[in-house]
Amino acid sequence: FMYLILLGVDERRVDSRTIYVGHRACSATEAFIPAKFCDNRIVSSKYTVWNFLPKNLFEQFRRIANFYFLIIFLVQVIVDTPTSPVTSGLPLFFVITVTAIKQGYEDWLRHKADNEVNKYPVTVLENGCRIRKESEKIKVGDVVEVEEDETFPCDLILLQSSRDDGTCFVTTASLDGESNHKVRRNDLESLYAAIECEQPQPDLYNVSVCTAQLLTKLSDLLMGLCRSLGPENLLLKGATLKNTQKICGVAVYTGMETKMALNYQGKSQKRSAVEKSINAFLLVYLCILVSKALVCTTLKYVWQSEPGQDEPWYNEKTQREKDTNRYLKMFTDFLSFMVLFNFIIPVSMYVTVEMQKFLGSFFITWDKDFFDPEIKEGALVNTSDLNEELGQVEYVFTDKTGTLTQNNMEFIECCIDGFQYKYRDASSELDGFCVTDGPVSKLQQKAGREKEELFLRALCLCHTVQVKESTEQGVDGEVIHPPQEQRGFIASSPDEVALVKGAMRYGFTFLGLESKSMKILNRNNDIELYELLHVLNFDPVRRRMSVIVRSKSGDTLLFCKGADSSIFPRVRQEEVERIRMNVERNATGYRTLCVAYKILSAEEYAQADAGLREARLALQDREERLMTVYNQVETGMSLIGATAVEDRLQEEAAETMEALQGAGIKVWVLTGDKMETAKSTCYACRLFQRNTELLELTVRTLEDGQPSREQRLHDLLVEYHKKAVQDAPPVKAGVTRSWSSAGHDYGFIIDGATLSMVLNSSSESNSNSYKNLFLQICQNCTSVLCCRMAPLQKAQIVKLVKNSKGSPITLSIGDGANDVSMILEAHVGIGIKGKEGRQAVRNSDYAIPKLKHLKKLLLAHGHLYYVRIAHLVQYFFYKNLCFILPQFLYQFFCGYSQQPLYDAAYLTMYNICFTSMPILAYSLLEQHICMEVLLDNAPLYREIAKNAMLRWGPFVYWTFLGVFHGLLFFFGVRFLFSNPALQDNGQVFGNWSYGTIVFTVLVFTVTLKLALDTRHWTWINHFVIWGSLAFYVFFSFFWGGIIWPFLRQQRLYFVFANMLSSVSAWLVIILLILLSLLPEILLVVFRKPRGPHARQVQLNHTQTHTHTHTHTLILSAPLFSSCL
Amino acid sequence: MVKQEQEIASRPDNTAFTQQRLPAWQPMLSAGIVIPGFVLIGLAFIGIGVALFVTSQSITVMELDYTGVERTSPCFRCSDPNVKNCVCQLDFSIASLFKGPVFFYYGLTNYFQNYRRYGVSKDDDQLSGDLDSFTSPSDTCSPYEYDSNNKPIVPCGSVANSMFNDTFKLYQIVNGTKKQVPFDGKGIAWWTDYNVKYRNPSVTPLRDAFNGTVKPLFWPRPAYELDPSDPANNGFINQDFLVWMRRAALPDFRKLYRRITEGDYAQGLPAGNYSLEIAYNYPVLSFDGRKKVVLSNVSWMGGKNEFLGIAYLVIGSLCIVMSIIMLIVYAKFKFPEEE
Hints:
Number of domains of chain B: 2
Shape of chain B: extended
Radius of gyration of chain A: 37 Å
Distance between the termini of chain B: 54 Å
Oligomer: heterodimer
Structural class of chain A: alpha+beta
Shape of chain A: elongated
Number of helices of chain B: 10
C-alpha cells in the first residue's frame, strides 16, 4: 500500500516535491533516494574565476561591433591588405581589455554581495542539536530556527512558534512592500512528516504554494492521514519575523528556487536609447563603408579594363597575383577596401563611451548633494550604462508609500462637532486639547466635553488595531510606530494606528482586546470595558468600517468611520454642514475620515445581529448579503467629527514633483494604497492642483448605476477620452507637450481592479481599444494616479507606456520590494534607500537616499550626461568620417590600389591618442549650462527631450560636416600638390608628405572643432586639448626623427620635419583649418549665450523670445545649433 | 553591494573636481570679439594672399612635352619602343631672362607611383646598406626579387626597377654654337635621404658589395655605376635614385632633375635659343603616359602655385564680408548679450 503511495509521489515528481522534515524519512523508504534539490546559495554573479575569460570574450564578441572588428582583424591577418593587422588589432585588444576589466570588477562586486547573503549564519536543528550553519548550506528538509527580526533564509513551512497559539507574525515589507504584519499559522506538530508541495513557481501572490499533503506520523502515513497546508503556513524568504520570539520551520524551497529568487531573476540588461541611436548610426556608417568599398572595387576593375592600366610595365604583377582567380581577386580587393576604410566605424568609440559612462557615473556617487546625513550614505550607481537615459526621461512612475511619503502617518487635527482641534506639540500638551483659531471657531471655543469624549471613544473603539506585546527586544525600528512611543500597535493600515495614537495623545488609550472586550484607559485613568460585538470590515467600495460594541452600562453602540463621501449621506444632514467645511479644507493634503455613531436599540441590535450572522453563514453571495446588512445598519447615524491624518511627505517632494513636471516629465503615481490616501498625497505633492479636473476610473465609479461593469467602463473611457483627448486643444508634439495644456489640467485615477479590466478585457478587440483609449487619456493628463496596484500591475503599466507610440523613456522610482518589478521594467529604475529593505536598491540602476535627489539626478546630472554622450557619439562619427573620407578620395588618384593616405602609425593612433582624450575630457566635464541654471530652469530639460541631439537631423548635420571637412582636407592639399615642389630649395614632396599634411589639418581641425564646442573650460580641458595637439606634433617629430629598427619601411622619416620647413605647407594647413572651422565659428557667435553669466540672459530670453520679432532672426541659428 | 555602500558611507569628498565645480573659463564668442577678429583675420589673409599671388605670378615656368606622340614632334621617332638608345632634340627659345636659380624638373603623367603594390615593392633594409638583404631581398620586392637565374636583384623591387632613365642636356645656342648649360645634380634629394635613410654598404670598392647580385632588369647599368662622373653619387645614395624613390603623391607629378646654379647661368637663363638633348629611354606610351621637362624658378613658397594665393584672397574677403554682414545685423538688432 505504501509502495503505491510512494510510486504515486514519484510519478508526480514533475509538478510536486516531497520533503521529509529533518530528513527523517520512514524506514521503508530508505531505499528511495532523496530527490536532489538545489542548495540555498543565491548566485547573481555571472562569472567564476575559471570561466571569466572564455565566457566574457564570448559575450563581448557577441556584440556586433566587436565581432565586426574581429572580422576586420582576421581579414587583415589572412588577406594581403594595405594596413597591417596591428592597426585594428591594437585598438580591438584595448577595447576588449578595458571592457573585460570593467565587467570583471562589476562581477566581483556581485560576488561580494552574494557572499554576504550566502555566508549569513543561521541556526539549523539537526537531530535535536542546534547547529550554526552558513545560510548557503541549508538543504531542503532542514529544520531552521529563526528569531525575531531575522529574515527567513529560505522558504519555510512553519512547524513551531514560540507563541502560545502557534502563530507568528511576519512582515513582508521586503517582498511586497506592505509593512503591516501578517499572521502565519502552524498546523504541524510532529517532526515525522513528509510534505509534498508543488514545484517552485514565481507567483508571489497566488501563494497556493503548498497544495501540501502532510503525513504527520509514521502511523499517519500508513493510515494515509493528510493535512493540507496553504499559503498561511508558508514563510517566504526575505520576510521578517515580527512580534514572535522564535519559530522553527522546515525548508521547502531553497536558493534559486525560493519565491523571492524566482521573482527577482530576469534582471535583464537594459540598453539606453543612446545605444540604440549609436547602433542606427553604425548601420548608416556600415552602409557608407560597404558602398565605399563597392564603389572602389567596381571602379578599380572598370579602370583596369582600359588598356595599359591593369599592369603597366613598371608595376608588374607577381606570379601569384597572375594565378589568382579573377573573382577571388575582386573579393579580396573588396575586403582590402573594407579594411582600408574600416576606421570610419570607430572602434575606440565603444571604449570611450564605456569609459565615459564608467567614469562619469562616479560623479553621481561623489555628489555630496546626494549624501544623506541620516543614513550616512550617498547615491549608488549599479549600472553605469544608463547615465544619459536620466536626461531623457518622459515618464516617472513613482511609488507612493516610502517614496513620495515617509510612510509615517501622523494625526494632525480633528474636528469635533464643528470645532477644530489641532494637535500641536506632543510632549507639552499631552493632557489637553489645543484649540486653534481656524476659520470655524473664531473664538477659543470648544465642543462640549461629552462630545469630545464620545469622539475619542469612537476613535479608540472603531478600528482593528492590535496592541503589540512588549518583548525583550524593546524598541524596534518599526515602520508604523516611531520608537519614542511606549506602546506599539499593529494594524493592517497605518492610519488606523495614527488615529488610535491620536486618541491616546488626548487621553484615551486603547489597551487592547481581551476576550472579546476592548479595554480603554480614559482621561481619568479609569479603565473602560466594551464588549466587541461585531466588526463591519472596511472595504474599498463602502469605504467605511464600523464596530458594534456594548458598553458597561449596557448601551449598544455603533461607531463608524469612513470617507466623507460615504458617511455624509448616512448621517443627519444638519450636522454635516458644520463639518464639511473642515473636511474640504483638509481634503487636499490630508487624509480625512469622518466619525459617526449611533445608539442601537435592543430590537435594532437584535435585527442587525441576526442579519449579520445569517449573512456570514450564507454559502452563496455572502459578500453581497453582508453588504446589504452593513448598509442597513449604517444608517441614521449622527456625525461626531472628522479627523485629518497626514502621511508626511518626503522632504521637498512637492518641489521635486513640480520641477519634474516643469521639465515636461509626466509623473504617474503607482501605489498599492487606497485611493483616498493616494489622492491626498497627490494633492499634497501638487501633482493634482486645485483646478485639476479628476477623471476617475475605479471600482466605485464603475459600480454607479450602470447594470454592467463592462458597459460602464466602456462609457467612461469614451467619455474621458472625449474630454481629455478630443476636446483638448491640439498640442504640438515634442518639447512643449504638457506645457501648453496649462489651460485645463486633467488628472486621471484608476485602480488595480479596473486596470485589469482594461488590460484583460473579455473580448480581444475591446481589450486593444480600451488599452489605446486608456493610454491616450493618460498621456493627455498631467498626472495619473494608479492605486491598489499589485506589483506586477505596476510593471504592466510601465510596460504599457514603454511600448506605446514613440516609445517614451520611463523611469520608475520606489523603495520597497513591491516596486522591484516596475524598477526592472522601466528604462531606468531608481531605488530609494528607504526603510523597506534593500530589494529595491539592489535591483535598481541607481539608488538615492531621498526622493528630492531625483531632481538633481535628472535635471542636472541626466541633462549633462545626455548632452555629453550625445556630443561624444556625434563627434566620434564625425571625426572618423573626415578621417577616412580623404583616404577614400585618394583611391581615385592612386589607381584604386588601396594605397593608404596616412601612415600606419597615424591610422592606429588617430583614435587612440591624438583625438581621444579631448573628447573624453569633454564628455566627462562639459557643462554647456551650469548646474545651478539647470536646476533652476526645469524647462531646459525639454530641450534635449526625445533624444534631440541624436536624431537624424543632427546626425545628418554632423555627417555633412564630416563630409565637408573631409573634402576640404583632401582637395585643399590636392590643389597644393598640383605642383609638389613646395620647398624653397625646389625639392618635391611625395605621397607621405601629402598624407601627413592632410592628417595634420585633420587632427588640428577636429580638436579645434571640439574646442569650439566646449563651453566649460576647466584646466583639464585645456590640458588635454592643447596637450593632444602638442603630443601630435611631438609624436610626429619623434616618429619621423628616428630610423625605427622594427619597421620594414621608414616611410615617415623626416616627412613631418620637412613639411614644417615648407612655408606653403604651413599656409595651407592654416588655411584649411580656418576654412573648416569658419562655419562653426559663425554658429558659435550666433549661439545662445549660456553659463553663469548667461543666466540673466537666459531668463530674459525665455520672456522675450515670444514677443520680439527681432530675436527670431538671430535665434534661428542658435535654435538650430543648440541641438547639434 | 552592501559592502560597497559601507565603503562609501563616509561623506563624499568635497573637492571641486568631484562636485563638478572646477573653475572653468566659459568662452563667450560675442559679436564684439568676433567682428574685429574676423576683420583682422580677413585682412591678414588678404595680405598673405596678395603676397602669395604676387610671388606666384613672379615665378616663371616653362613646360616642354617631349613624349613624341605627334608626328611633328622631334621625339616622335624615339617613342617607338623598338628604337633603342634614341636621342632627340627639342629646341625652344626664351624671350627674356629666366631668373635663376632655375630648377630643371622632369614630369610624368598618368604614372601611378602611388600604386600600393608598387610602393611596397622595395626593401628598406637593403637600401640602408644591410648586406644580408643583398643576398636575400625582402619578399615585398616580388616580382623583382630574384632574376630568372635566381640571383638576387639589388636594389630590388618595382620602384627601383622602374627608375626614370631619360637623361637631359641643355644647350644654349649662342651664335649657332651649342653652349652646354651646366647642371648641378647635388641637393636635389632630401638631405636626410641622402645622409641618413639611404646608405651604401661600407665596402670599398662599392662594386664588391654587389657581388653575386644582379642589377634591376630595367636598368642599363648597375647601381654602383649610376654616376660615372662622381663616385660619391653612386649606389643607393645616387641623387637621381633618391628622387625617384620618394614616391609621388599623385599620378601627374614632377621630380627635380637638376639645378642650374653655376657659371654664366647662376643668374638664370638669359634670353635666347636653347636646345634640349634628350636621351629617350623611358617608355610611357604603353600606359598612355606623357613625359615633359619643366624649367622653373622657385620662391619662398616653393614652385608656382596659384591656388594658395587665390584661396587666401577668397577666404580673406569672405571674412571681411562676413564681418560686414555681422556688423549690419549687429547694428540693426543689437545682440541681446551686449545690453
